[in-house]
Fold each of these.
Amino acid sequence: MGENIQNLDGLAVSLNKMIDHIQVILPNSKILITGTFWKNVPVNDIFVQVANQRHLPFVKLSQLDLNENISSIGSTVLSVDGLPYKITNQAVAGHPGDQGMLKMAEAIFQGIQAMMQQTISR
């Protein structure tokens, strides 16, 4: 979430509305906010601000925006079905590859574990 935001006007309000909606629909849910993979300081600052105001955990991901985590033309990656395919589209090639996705998943999973540990400790 937040990767393609061009206009910051209303972002905090919209994020708060989304959180409110989730809490109405799923009152016992646990919510964790993640930052963007690509370095986007203005968007991430708003996400951190909302997380802090609402006492929600925030997982930073922008430290993963490194060449080693980005795919490239000719790279073989796994599809959602687990099948390998070669990247031939430049727009797709600029996105996280399998290693980047794994590192994002690990960071988010650690955030979930920490959040659940705090819930148990209370």
Amino acid sequence: TYLEQPFFKNAPHFILSCMTPGLKRVFRFGDSGGGIGNYANALYLGAIRHRDLQALAGLRLLEKNLPKSFWLGWMDILWQYPAVDLPEQKFSDYPKYDYCPDLGLVHARESWQEGAAGAMFKCGPLGGYTLNRYRNQNNFKYINVAHDDFDANSFIIFMDNEFIAETDGYSYQTRSANHNTILVNGTGQMVPGRMREGMKFNQPGRGDMTKMAVLTTWFTQPGVLVTEGEASASYPAITKGAKRRPGLNMFRRSFIWVDGKYLLILDRVEAEAEAKISWLVQAAKDVIKVNPDQGLFRLVGRQTQADFQLLASAPVDSIEVVKSTADHRGKNMGHRQLQFTTHGRKHLFATLFNVWKHPSLKMSWKIGDDDEMIITVDGQGFSHTWHCRAPAGKFVPSSIVGEMGNLKVEVDPQKHKLTPPPTH
């Protein structure tokens, strides 16, 4: 039957993977608007047909938390009847880390318990790989990417039951400045052939878009997740007009999540010529410059806050906290945004987020041969050292090694390389 299609097997997992700890909020991206719609009852069909007992348990918890998203309640009598004899399973055993290859989405969670921390990292092409494969196979015909954003190599952070590193909503002015990513000479990501930002609905560019943003690696072991994205092709050169800029040869972002300890984000940006790179992060209420000379800042949310440390290799041009352009259906959301701007051709950034509010968390670094980033993270009762070597090719993963006391993390460029879904 139609329920045998992979979509119906994967849809329950995809929806659950987009949920925050506690199963009450959504890790937003594109024009999701922060919800899961109102006919989620249909997800039971796929979970029951494929006997996905963990997904079934998760959907039942989700229905208790978000009943308005399951308004077709009378259909449950039919759709859940085949599950009456299935054994119960605990949702708490559901995977904490997940990866959606079609969209380049990664989620990390401390646990599924309410109040636990989590984060999302995103690096994928407008429309995802499946839609672009259809386009590429049909002479690059028009596809609808109107609900996708220029958010490659962006992240959001969830803690204390709220988003502390924020994103936009259903934006009517889509631009990279709405997200936690970077700007080049003040402008963000664009598609060749449509060199504009701030449109209400994004449109496809010319040719193959699948190389605009690629997730290069995915690595997990108990308590640790490492992933990485390459998004330099999302920043083509602008050669005319007042907003000229060079293109990027590299924009590599490494995302390192260590449960109960910290989130570490490492960036390598290399421009075709000297450029100003603005590193962005935004919060609901404010971003405080605690000690900008030492790279110390604080995200202030509605009910909580999180300190972070930001180190940069290139000369600092400016450190500003401004009103974010992030909007929801045309209304500015009121976020405050840090724009940490450096200038040069090569830019390295290391950012340490104190997601678990350790009293003495700090980071130091040095740049070794061939721009190897050597990061030491010290906290109460632990000292970790990370070595991140520059990648050997456009979509080749970086070599990342973490020395964490008795635990060693090794991300091998060959062993842990992700192969993007075929595009032709």
Amino acid sequence: MTITVYGAGAIGGVTGAALARAGQDVPLADRAEDHVAAMNAHGLTMASSSRSPAGSSR
């Protein structure tokens, strides 16, 4: 299933990463072109409060 998340900021990014880790196809969209370019170039890495990786999405 493809689930598109519009608004890939803090909440949308975490939601999208969790869905991707669960095996869903999750395109992320955001109105800030520089934000989208950075995510396309580097992916989106989530970190927990202990600074250990909590998940990743590309």
Amino acid sequence: MLPPAMQFDQQVGDLGISASDHIVIYDTSGIGSACRVYWTFRAFGHSNVSVLDGGLPKWEAEGRLTVSGDTVVEPKVYNSQINPTIVANFKDIRTATTVHNCQVIDARPAGRYYGSDPEPRAGLSSGHIPESRSLPFPMVMDPVTKTFLEPEKLRELCEHRGISLDRPIICTCGSGITASILYLAFERAGVTDLSVYDGSWTEYASIPGVLISKVNI
């Protein structure tokens, strides 16, 4: 879940980041947790932010310069402004398909979506939000380079899976991490009405009496 704005501002400022900086985010897996950091900055109103496609593995494979040691930074004052349009909640999920003609796209592995495999969190049922569609996050990446699919290839994939890139989309997963990968993939493909369900399946499936769909396969 997103941290409180005061905590975010303090920790980001301690890193020497100001609201006017262009931030480039990378990780050691290609495009994994970097996407969650990207979406978090976007959610707190920082628009000038990018993800290094392929991350550190691709950077090193191309023979680019790396350094070691600590980075010395000068703390700055950071003031965020939350962008609520890209942060979805349980109420948004409940009305997404019935009221707003919005698609809910699930990034979890297919087995957890269908309900045939257990959730990694004890006591949490597997299955999926009714009317949601499955798009496991590895499908939007090149399996070798761990970079994003080109937008035209993503569009072809989505058409095959019954997902329209011309309608609003809410991305969800287990806890809001891999949903952020879908978020950035869809954003690159030109989707503008786009958000992440921050609580995702961990919140949804914990709510008493909530509807959970399962498929026998």
